[in-house]
Amino acid sequence: MDGGKSGLKFVRKALLAWIILLATLLAAPVNAEAGFPLAVEPGRSQEMVENSARYLVTARDVEIGFEEARARYHDGDFSAQFQSDKTGAFHDWRVWAALPFESAAHSGSQPMRRVIGVGGVFVRPPRVYLDCEGETPREILATRTGEGGPLSARYFTYVRSQSFTIAPGQSCLALINMASSDNPNLGIFREGELGTRQVVAVLLKGGVTATLLIIGLILAIVSYLTSRPLGLLLGITYALAMVQNEASLFTTTFMTDRFAARELWENITLLTIFAMVYTFFYGFRDELRLRNGWLRFGVALALVAPVFAIARSSNETPDFIWALYLALFLFAITVTFRFDIARPLRLMAGLVLLTSAAGAFVTEPYIFGRYLSDLTIEWFRDLFRLIAGLGILGLLLVDVLRTRRERARMVAERIEALEVQAETDRRLLETEREYVRAREAATRTKAQLAAASHDIRQPIVGLRAAVRSEAERLSPGLQDRLSEAIDYLENLTREYSNRDEVLGEARLGPEETEPYSLHLITSAVENMFAGEAKEAGVELDVTGSELLTTIPALALIRVTSNLVANALRHADPSKIEVSITEQNGHCQIRVRDDGNGMDAATLLRVQEAGAKSDTSDGDGLGLAIIHDLAARHGFEFHLHSQPGAGTEATITLSSTGDHAHESRSV
């Protein structure tokens, strides 16, 4: 609770800081009362001077050149207010801005070198003309490349003109022709300098981009720590998409060579396209049969290669920007159907991303954005980016909370499993102690019987001698009956004496030859697991038998309890059956469940020492121990299983002779 409150306080303070910063920037003066013409002072730059400019928007489908624009400025056709005309075509050249300025340097001082900055969202670079007193008018922002080809269409956020010299007291007029329907941002800067307001604007957008980038990286880190490769790919790809969205802004602002800036933007865009396509292939690898990582990589690279070739051979953005939006849709589909969260949240996040991608596509200037103003398009693009960011942030928060809950659940299950194992060990130890006590009591009883048989043997010898001495007085029939009775008593005492001798020999290798009823095994197993089965909602059906065996009881209890415990805790059964049967002179103990079952490969693997299922909390030694006990005590162990049909274990014991047996339900 304390951590949650402190986190909430931190968020509130951060929001308050952002609000104060934005309010400060908005409240800062923007040269609303700038002079006309603008005075260019030595040693400083003039920023946000668009209020010192005059504007002209010609009639629809009417474009004029520099000479006519200059004549109309001197005729007073330019107005102080920019009249936006959103009904015109996006690429026409009907907007003119005139910025008169003069040097405020003292006479005799050195000339000043300046550049003109034009800010806005431009699909085509503006045309900037300079008409200074005493000089020939000239264009100071080239419209063609060094090879003579046209400048490529792209977004220019803030462009700068060629540098020029202005002498003390000299007056100049800058005429700017723009294919844009929005009020531009103008400034006159010292050579090599960029306006602080433009830097602040870039840093603000950079802060938002960095925040969204961090969200993607956190998602990637959380997914890596929780061993979810798809979440790792989604986080990295989302971070790349956020960087790509503002790559044009940063490359244009901070790189002096616009062509190098465009090449860097193209590389970031192509890398983002590849990452989104690869993420889609990974998410749907089973459906697309792309389970091999190198194959996925190769197919994704082969699909992006033509886009790369188009981007390198053509400087026209529309020739390959469609691939970015297609990749965005594939990325959103991957999140919608493959991200490892609850289905309603996954669908909601996918819908947010699909909507954002569709909105960005629709407002693209080369699609339906031609009917909107430049700044309106930029506003919509930032809005869609923010919505997508909030969607991923929501996914991240839900994923972190789910990870914490999953970890707590796993810890609780581990503790519960350890408690159950401890209880099972306690029951097994108690059963072993009871068996030892019963064996000791049986040993004492046998010793008493052996002593009694020894004492009885002497009277029997005397009785036989008496019968022989009185043979002449006894009838033949009575002699025969007395002889049979004496033989029976003698055989009975000899039997106990023989058992005692065998028992003495057995002490050389513990109790292997002492027969006992298998009812001891079934009753012990039932006592150990009846409560656990009832709590788990599993029917435990134990059928006992009075068949005898000489295999140590503790060994059979360990084998049978291991099998029942495995079925109860890992097979997800509804019923477990423990039964004892006799076939062809051999006794068989069967443990069968109707749970999940295993395929042949899994069946072989789980019988190896150290092997265990994904859901097992143990050390993977149970079935290996059973095989070891079988080899040590001379019984057979077989395990059969099929997926969905359950598992059956059979323990086959050697025959114990013609002992009467009785099966009953335990």
How would you sum up this structure, described in words?
With 666 residues, this protein is of the alpha+beta class. The protein folds into 4 domains: 152 residues, Jelly Rolls; 213 residues, no CATH class; 75 residues, no CATH class; 150 residues, Heat Shock Protein 90 (2-Layer Sandwich), CATH 3.30.565. Helices cover 54% and strands 15% of the residues. The strands form 4 sheets. Strands 1, 2, 3, 5, 6 and 9 form a 6-stranded mixed beta sheet that branches. Strands 16-17-15-14-12-18 form a 6-stranded mixed beta sheet, covered by helices on one side. Helix 4 packs antiparallel against helix 6 and helix 5 packs antiparallel against helix 6. The longest helix is centred in the middle third of the chain and has 96 residues. The radius of gyration is 47 Å and the shape is rod-shaped. The protein starts with a helix and ends with a strand.
Task: Describe the protein's topology.
Layout: H1 2-27, E1 38-40, E2 54-57, H2 66-74, E3 95-103, E4 112-122, E5 127-132, E6 138-139, E7 156-160, E8 164-166, E9 171-178, E10 185-190, H3 196-225, H4 229-245, H5 247-254, H6 258-283, H7 285-288, H8 293-313, H9 321-338, H10 343-362, H11 374-469, H12 476-506, E11 516-517, H13 519-536, E12 539-545, E13 548-549, H14 553-570, E14 575-583, E15 586-593, H15 600-606, H16 622-633, E16 636-642, E17 646-653, E18 663-665
Parallel strand pairs: 1-3, 12-14
Antiparallel strand pairs: 2-3, 3-9, 4-7, 4-8, 4-10, 5-6, 5-9, 11-13, 12-18, 14-15, 15-17, 16-17
